Amino acid sequence: MSIFPDDIIAQAEAIIRDFTTAGLMVSTAESCTGGLIAGALTEISGSSAVVDRGFVTYTNTAKMEMLGVQEETLIRLGAVSEETARQMVHGALFRSHAAIAVAVTGIAGPGGGSAEKPVGLVHLAAKSRAGGLVHRKMLYGDIGRAEVRLATIRTALGMIRELAQP
């Protein structure tokens, strides 16, 4: 039995299987999910061949120190922004041995939202050493903290698989 829903486990199993076959590794940079993307991947037996590392960067200081996110970006655009997600994924990729990295930053709620950045807003970025970069701005809505986080995991795992396609 897993702590994750069956569909997330199926996504994670596919990544572990495909990345093991291809000899690829993945890293994660997580804010609003607090390490749950890495957790979903490491729920699968054999994941140590695929998961290089995960960065849990909940604070702006952690984003800057661990991933190299620019302070100016955080001041000008905020932690929950496309540019922050892009800088996070770049840092995760180049501070690891991964072929593909994924980063997420968002507002899971129930508080913390605003008119400009509502609860349920999540920016995700995935980047490949081969040069691919994907960004998604998701507006999940105020569906509850757990549901925002689960939806984010699903999207992030999908983005990893998308970038791994030849």
UniProtKB/TrEMBL annotation:
Tell me where on the tree of life, at the top rank, the source sits. Answer: Bacteria
User: Cross-referenced SUPFAM superfamilies, in alphabetical order?
Assistant: CinA-like (SSF142433)
Domain CinA C-terminal residue range list? 12-163
Question: NCBIfam families, from UniProt?
Answer: PncC_domain
User: Could you tell me what this protein is called?
Assistant: CinA domain-containing protein
